Amino acid sequence: MQVLENEVLKVAISANGAELQSIYHKTVQLEYLWQGDPVVWPRKAPVLFPIVGKVKNNEYTVTDKKYSLTQHGFARDRMFDCIHFTNTSCTYRLSHSEASLLVFPFEFELDVIYTIEGESLTVSYRVFNPSTSKELYFSIGAHPGFNCPLVEGETFEDYYLEFEKSEKLSRVLLEGGLRSDASEEVLLTNKKLPLSADLFTVKDAIVVSGLYSECISLKSKKSSHGLHFNYKNYPWFGIWSKPGPFICLEPWMGVADDIHSDGNFIKKEGIQSLKPNTENLFSYSISLF
Known about the structure:
single chain, mainly beta, Beta-galactosidase, Chain A, domain 5, 25 strands, globular
């Protein structure tokens, strides 16, 4: 466990999954990160790699060979190595192994980098392809859960999400975790989405693509505490609750298979690729208030 700390924030990260364990605002004495509950949802902020969501039947093919991966991939359940640490920044690394190659036939190096400055936490993913000859295909995404309500005495329904720009949200409806052919509009009022259990109890996550906004804010109708969630160039975004008392804001470079998927991983919707000996960087940030 590594702990980052400055005059405002105290952030804890576990080597298991390189997963956030706490985002604590020292000035207002509030824990912003969902602390996990095995009855509701035991995780806090898993890293989704090398897939986001499900592959159909938990199977996929690469050059006609079949492999198996469960939802959101294996990184969230693997031990990472801490390769860099200061009071305000740390880097965790996971690399391919004999075990990973049995379920994911690509060499890779995944760094998860945490940096705090003032009231903000930045999370970056560096994906590197160490192969000398083979292209790397993957997806990656974030899945942090935030306490909702943040303040004692408030309820989940006292909160809303405010989008940076006007959006027409077309929600892809899910069938067993896979994208169906159906969708429906999620109505916003003045760029605001009021939170309620009904949004998630029957239809699971709100999965959308093509957002114009690069910031979504979690705000309360009753108090001044919340957060700004900043992201950029993520083609897909997920919003999820069990329902409450938490809300997940999830920028994705990739998405679950649809119900018609033939399992071809290289042609998978949203798949990312890296040529040999190249890397790419993805990031998001959380600013507390």
